[in-house]
Write a structure and sequence with these properties.
This protein is mainly β. Helix content is 7%, strand content 39%. It has 3 helices and 21 strands. The chain has helices at residues 141-154, 184-187, 199-203; strands at 2-5, 10-17, 25-33, 41-44, 50-58, 64-72, 78-81, 87-88, 92-97, 103-108, 111-117, 166-171, 175-180, 209-211, 228-235, 240-246, 249-252, 270-276, 279-284, 288-293, 299-303. The strands form 5 sheets. Strands 4, 5, 6, 7 and 8 form a 5-stranded antiparallel β-sheet that branches. Strands 1-2-3-14 form a 4-stranded mixed β-sheet, with no helix packed on it. Strands 9-10-11-12 form a 4-stranded antiparallel β-sheet, with no helix packed on it. The longest helix is centred in the middle third of the chain and has 14 residues, at 141-154.
Length: 321
């Protein structure tokens, strides 16, 4: 399953299928009208069937209007967060989701990054009582019954343990690149989770459209313990390394530096970063790509001769190191 955002504010789900007749096929199975402005980014919330999407539009009187939503990919139920901020002085550039889906890192232009957390947990429900994507809070009894029937055909609903994301802290660091680190535990997670077993219910029938307005059920879980995850970073002053993030506590792991070149100091203005524990891959505008083992300090560098904008690593690599 894939998700895409459009300039009309829609978030669409795309089913990817393989078969004998057609080796690879893609089909839009659901389309949700969630935002009023162009969708600037979409990310999955870890391995959960929840999509995080955001918009960032300049206001008529100046400033920026940044909107974020969590959306259940199976039902279209959505939850706005950080919506009380209003017009602000910085645009939201991008978001980073931790591998477990617990942390959401918001990256702004010229402002400190914000670390948010959510303890969202999804459970199957054969008798969903949540409002459907097409239902409003003033629905009649008849429409509520119809909505319950539609929800029952989906076989899923947000459980009461879904929590409203809350801001954990600010990260006032001049990031030039930042990514969450995939670890062996995340690499060994089964990509075919229980929600995927119900994916056939999402793909039945024509693509559907949903208007923003329905909301998830919420529970207070801000006090629940948060897991520890790793965040790889490169700063505009040339420094790079790994942070350990556990709730409000953020600690520099003091990645081991190589005694001689090549090393992180050979990367000038890092603009591409990928991290699969214990390896960091950093690329710069000069075309240099550095592979750095932060536990031993071993480094290898190659020159591509091209401006590097992005780098990605197959997550399974961390299980082989």
């Amino acid at each position: 399953m894939a998700t895409v955002g459009s300039n009309t504010g829609h978030v669409e789900l795309v089913a990817l299928r393989r078969g004998l007749i057609n080796p690879l096929a893609a089909e839009v199975v659901s389309s949700y009208a969630l935002h009023k402005d162009s969708v600037r980014g979409v990310r999955w919330l870890g391995c959960q069937p929840v999509v995080v999407s955001f918009t960032s539009e300049k206001g008529s009187a100046g400033g920026w209007r940044n909107n974020l939503l969590l959306t259940d990919a199976r039902t279209g139920l959505c939850l706005a967060f950080r919506d009380a901020v209003g017009i602000e002085g910085s645009s939201l550039l991008d978001i980073r989701i931790s591998p477990s889906g617990t942390y959401i890192l918001l990256l702004f232009n010229g402002a400190p990054a914000e670390l948010w957390a959510t303890a969202a947990q999804l459970e199957p429900s054969q008798h969903a009582s949540s409002l459907s994507p097409h239902q409003t809070s003033s629905a009649t009894a008849a429409s509520a019954a119809a909505a319950a029937t539609r929800a029952d055909t989906n076989h899923w609903a947000f459980s009461s343990s879904v929590t409203q994301p809350w801001r954990v802290r600010l990260l006032d660091l001049p990031f030039s690149a930042v990514e969450w680190v995939a670890t062996p535990e995340h690499a060994h997670q089964n990509a075919v989770t229980s929600w995927a077993q119900e994916a056939s219910t999402v793909g039945r029938g024509p693509a559907t459209k949903s208007d923003h307005g329905s909301s998830m059920q919420l529970a207070d879980a801000e006090s629940s313990p948060l897991p520890s995850e790793l965040l790889a970073f490169a700063l505009t002053d040339g420094r790079s390394g790994v942070l350990s993030v556990r709730g409000r506590k953020v600690v520099d792991l003091r990645a081991r530096q190589p005694p001689n070149s090549p090393g992180p100091r050979d990367i000038v203005a890092c603009c591409a970063l990928a991290a699969v524990w214990p390896l960091l891959l950093l690329g710069d505008a000069e075309g240099r790509l550095l592979v750095w083992d932060v536990t031993t300090g071993s480094c290898s560098i190659i020159s591509t001769g091209e401006h590097l904008y992005a780098v990605a690593v197959l997550p399974r690599l961390c299980a082989c190191t």
